[in-house]
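Exercise 7. Predict the joint structure of the components listed below.
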Amino acid sequence: MKSFLSCYFLLILLCGLRPLAATDITSANQALASGHAAEALADYQSLLASPQFSKASAPELWYDCGLAQKKIGDPIAASLSFRRALLLDPTLAPARAELTSVLGSLGVTMNAGWQEQLLVKVHPELLILGGAILGWLGVFLLVIFLILGPRKPLFIALALTALILGHGVSIFGSFIDPRRVANNLGVITAKTAPTLRETPADSATAQGTATPGSLITILSRNGSWWYVDDGSGHLGWIPATTITPLLPFHEGS
Amino acid sequence: MIGRVKKFMKIRPRFFLSLLAAALCWQGAGITSVRAADVSVSASLSQPVVTSGEMAELQVKVTGADRADVPQQIAVDGLQIRLTGQSTQVQMVNFKVSSSVVYSYVVMPLKTGTFTIPTIPIRTSAGMARTSPLSFTVSDGAGGGNAGGPPPLQAQSQRANPGMPGFAPPQQQPQPQPRQRDAEPDPDHIAFGEINCQRKTLYVGEMVPVEIRYYFDARYSAQVRSGVNFGSEGIIVERFPEPKESRVERDGVLYNVLSFHTLLSAVQPGSLDLSGAKLETQIQMPGPLPPGFNDPVFQQLLGGRAGFNQTRDVTVNTAPLHLEVLSLPKEGRPASFAGAVGQFDIDANVANPKPAPGDPVNMTVKIAGKGNFTSMSAPQLTDVEGWRSYPPGEKFEGHNEMSFAGVKTFDFTLIAQQLRHQSPGAEFSYFDPNAKKYVTLTTAPIPLEASPGASSTPPVAATSPTPPPQQASTPLPALAGTSKGEIPLSVSSLRSWQTPMQRSEFFVASVSLFVAALSLGGILHFFKIQSEGGTPSSRRRRRTADLWSMLNSGSLDAGATYETALEYAELVPADEEKRGEIVAKLTERRDVLKYGIGGSAPLAESERNRLMETLRGLSMKSSKS
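Solution:
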């Protein structure tokens, strides 16, 4: 499995992704390891803001950024960085442990559904690509068996199974991939818990509060007010300035 | 000249509007900058010196800011300082309106000594501001807490409100009487207040519900101008929720009633005399009639004296409140007591009893009941050997608007440093004011299976025990070098923010694979045909051509010629009826030659020509048809 993953990542790297600014990352890591968290954080943020990381990013870099934010005493920003690291790589165990720790300090509990438990073990991209490869292998085998033979029922059944199972796993992996719905997710990054209001106005009736660091679903956007679901059944309008979208290239939208 | 100006203004109205807008913007910016410059913050302590077991109140005042973010807790080793509420004051002096917000913190000493409360960073709409550091001393109870300190609270309270002009002095509860409509109204009978405190004797830190009611004569229009002004040094009053409105009749007069419910708690023992709760209102009251309008006919025409009403600013006040505050007993105080007063119950559970090696265990401890939840500390963990824990997250769910009854949840994150088969226990102590004694609640360790990760450091429990809950306000533990899991990672790969199915590469690859599968099928099919000598029709075409050339060559004997002709007639595309007829004739002739005489002799030229003509006609007819 490890060799397969290594080949897979190598393939991704070879498939036209630009080389990383390895020197900058190394120096930032050294600064963080030597206790200069603020300096390291500035380097990480500079790296993450570069165009190189706009469409694709490194989960380890977000994890390192979260560590620096946690160390300078900003657990809310750290939780956002750890969430982004896990969005890119749900199997990154250190990021999951740190996120649990940070959310614990903020009084936020992590979602522990079956999807989360599965994602800890298997990267959804592996399911999607592995399933697609198996599915297409089934397609080609079916073509070969039907045309060249042998047209034995067992072989045809095996090819059909590979086709259906492979593409099914691929679709399932896409279904559980947290990036699929990340467009509408955000994290409460206000220092104080914003009030959920019935209508988009400061004077509207309060419906409850959203805990800083918690993950919310953005249901609608109306100027500077967003209609959100805090995940515990509470819906309401909160100022957009209190939320940071989970996808970094949506910040400021 | 004037004509030119008028003409210019007529032609360029947009120019003047823009000029006006720019001027207004400039003026607005000027006002903003002035307002930003006027923001000020200050901090003060109700008691700079207290005895062990007493609490003090820290007030942070922010003046001139639209909005301010203050910390929920202030970290001082040996003190627990928590935000408990806020109040807003609005003043208008010489038509200049200024507002200030006072944030109240309760300061609970955890040990004796002299402490410095650091500067408190406050983020305001005008930028960051900081208060000055304050000195705070906690002396041993035996020596007396007021030595060298300010006078007792009662004396302070009496000095605090020397009687502001315009405010009515403390008064007895008014007893409104039915009055004549045209008599000069008395504001004290038109509006008055009542305060109802369930307990007059309470313990330090105990939360006591308070109800404040304001009665307004329903015949007069009243408008509330500010929030309830109630409080004094030495007590903490929770923020007032929205009032409830009702109507009651007293002594034949109908009153509109505003009811405010809140909670108060005392921070220091002693006698407390609280001035009444004030509410600033404006009431429309009948004014004096001008000369000549005293005629009853006029008054009837004008609907009584409504036409001569005047608005009066009225401060509605309640009776003062006297409280006796008792100190918490020192006898029998448990070590785990951290200031909780009320009646509580405890429960604990573990969300993931079988975490993966190195993964954290999420342990939740719930404290339910009634009491001072806002200043409640986390329970202490027991049996923490082999565990590393972080300060817990807190969440409170109140049963009503006031934070008096509800459930407070503490989420502990625990990481096993050794193989552990049970979680730590939890211990929580509180003082029950009804039973007048301390109560300690504990939870038993919960069975689980937790083991350290492969990268964990050796067991550290013996050298770095879990920080006690009293240090919950301290920052998170330092990261560097504590465990491998907190070491920065080097970047190994780039990942997309989109799922593969959302990416164009995946779509292109899928289409390409589909085309490749089709191509593969075609190629395989082609080679299969090639290996079989072509398609049946092409094979038939080739065979008929061979047969025709054999017939044409004349090298075959008679029997073989008819054999070949018969095969040709069966293969060549032709009308089936004609083919059947010809095949029958050819079969008959072949059988004669085959089983009779002359089958091995060459076929006569004339017969061969007829045969070829017949076959050609068959194939021609087939091509025509």
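Discussion. Residues 122-176 of chain A form one domain.
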